[in-house]
Amino acid sequence: MKITIAKTAGFCFGVKRAVETVYQQIEENPGMPIYTWGPIIHNEQVLEDLAAKGVKMIETLDAAEQIEDGIIVVRAHGIGRELYERLDRPGIRLVDATCPFVKKIHRTVETKSADGYRIVVVGSSAHPEVQGIVGWSKTPADVVESPEIAAEYVPEPGKPVCIVAQTTFNYKKFKDVVEKISEKSYDSIAVDTICNATYERQREAALLAEESDVMLVIGGRSSSNTQKLYEICRQHCPKTYYIQTALDIGDDWFWTDASVGITAGASTPKNIIEEVYTNVRLKF
Ligand code: SF4
Known about the structure:
The structure is a single chain. This protein is of the alpha/beta class. The chain has helices at residues 13-28, 44-52, 61-65, 81-87, 100-114, 128-134, 147-152, 171-184, 196-210, 224-236, 270-283, and strands at 2-5, 34-37, 56-58, 70-74, 92-96, 118-122, 142-144, 161-165, 188-190, 214-218, 240-243, 259-264. The protein is built from 11 helices and 12 strands. A 4-stranded parallel beta sheet has the order 1-12-10-11, with helices on both faces. A 4-stranded parallel beta sheet has the order 3-2-4-5. Helix 5 runs parallel beside helix 6 and helix 9 packs parallel to helix 10. The longest helix has 16 residues, at 13-28. It is flat, with a radius of gyration of 21 Å. The relative contact order is 0.16. The site of iron/sulfur cluster (SF4) has 14 residues, from helix 1, helix 5 and helix 9. Iron/sulfur cluster binds at residues 12-15, 76, 99, 101-102, 167-168, 195, 197-198, 266.
């Protein structure tokens, strides 16, 4: 059996940086209460380890307002401006681990909306990164989730449109959305804000899936970039499985001369990828 691990599998720069930020805060501030705004990463094993070290997670302003002192770490997805300002108050030290690539989208949205553009964010409206991006627009912004929705989109008359994307959005779908909106708006600009890490991971996953008999995609159930990786791999390899850890691997998925590809979402630690590799190897 041939097993290939994608070079781009696992932690991206932004997630690695955010997780390291929390561990650094724990080390540098013994005894100080530490909170993260939402899960710092979509990975249960890492979250359990942080919880064991006393890190708590908060997700509502009410919960944040109960905190009298401590550190709140903003995760890689970032948050909107209003929330940022409300969390940043006396007694609280706000540590911003927003990925610099997401931060750059915040700046674009803030500037362009101030310049009179209607902001369109291409992505999932339920995703915290998208909600954070929308939160930096100075005027109401729209979220367009798919090319089908873009086909129905009606631009505000006389207003230029600035289109940005959720960093983990599928590149081809983003291009389709831009094309559809541009057909309707005389004055639109599109800023390709899809992260290279995501694009590279998706591109490599597609190539690997194409040449594999079985493809394993590792990642948390609620990780949107892992779900997208899974969709892409399935298009090229019907025997694609979505797993969280080595425990999810089925006994009848492989055969002696099968070629197996392994990739993983941005929130998957290296040790989990290695564990999956070892377990697949042990199957034959
Ligand atoms: S996927 Fe890209 S934008 Fe998102 S956290 Fe990772 S490096 Fe940053």
